[in-house]
Write a structure and sequence with these properties.
This is Putative 7-deoxyloganetin glucosyltransferase. InterPro entries: UDP_glucos_trans. By secondary structure, the protein is an alpha/beta fold. It has 2 domains: 3-135, 3-Layer(aba) Sandwich (Rossmann fold), CATH 3.40.50; 156-230, Glycogen Phosphorylase B (Rossmann fold). It is built from 9 helices and 6 strands; from the N terminus they run H-E-H-H-H-E-H-E-H-H-E-H-E-H-E. The strands form 2 sheets. Strands 1-2-3 form a 3-stranded parallel β-sheet, with no helix packed on it.
Length: 231
């Protein structure tokens, strides 16, 4: 969050930023203003979501090879010229150059083109990721229960996955931000049930607007031994 930069400046503290997401997402955020200046965003109207416009290849972000508009973060797909997320990202990006150093949850070989572009823009960058690999280097003590996941991990799916053929399971996960209505959840549920394929569906406790939603016993019977839901 870029407000920490302002707080550090007010207290004359050194500023070191940590980017837990990919270096690629950081680089894209730095160029939102460029995308606006070139007229690529915001979208003119909602028809641009489906008329092939998002397949435009980008040549205005150094370090991104063969990227299309549709490959960027979803909130660039807005028709609102004052979209709050885009404005927030631009405001944050304008402050990034005030940092004395920036630490990334990646490694150079994984995002070499992106990191080379960032090295040319910032004087002090450090790649220390992926963070989960650091857990294996931590001495076994009272901190060993800590992980990089803010949700309690449900590991029952691992044994179930081992019982399936490689490449045979449909994986469904809406991440940590998306929410949906009960009706949308039901539509997805029965779509998975009717696909007749093994599937693993991750359902967060707060995925459904209004609180926890219990899938019917009819659905559970339909997917028995073929589908698994976890949180």
């Amino acid at each position: 969050m870029s407000f920490t930069i302002q707080a550090a400046e007010e207290h004359a503290l050194p500023i070191i930023l940590f980017c837990p997401a990919s270096a690629c997402s950081f680089l894209v955020a730095l160029h939102f203003r460029t995308l606006i200046e070139k007229g690529l965003i915001p979208l003119k109207d909602e028809s641009y979501l489906t008329n092939g416009y998002l397949d435009i290849k980008l040549d205005c972000i150094p370090g991104l090879q063969n990227f299309r508009l549709k490959d960027l973060t979803d909130f660039i797909r807005s028709t609102n010229p004052n979209d709050v997320m885009v404005e927030f990202a631009i405001e944050a990006a304008d402050r990034f150059h005030k940092a004395s150093a920036i630490v990334f949850n990646t490694y150079d070989e994984l995002e070499s083109d992106v990191m080379n572009a960032l090295y040319s823009m910032f004087p002090s960058l450090y790649t220390i990721g992926p963070l989960p690999s650091l857990l294996n280097q931590t001495p076994h003590n009272h901190l060993e229960s800590l992980g990089s996941n803010l949700w309690k991990e449900d590991t029952k799916c691992l044994e179930w996955l081992e019982s399936k053929e490689p490449g045979s399971v449909v994986y469904v996960n809406f991440g940590s931000v998306t929410v949906m209505t009960p009706e949308q959840l039901l539509e997805i549920a029965w779509g998975l049930a009717n696909c007749r394929k093994p599937f693993l569906w991750i359902i967060r406790p707060d995925l459904v607007i209004g609180g926890l939603f219990i899938l019917s016993s009819e659905f559970e019977n339909e997917i028995s031994n073929r589908g698994l839901t976890a949180s």
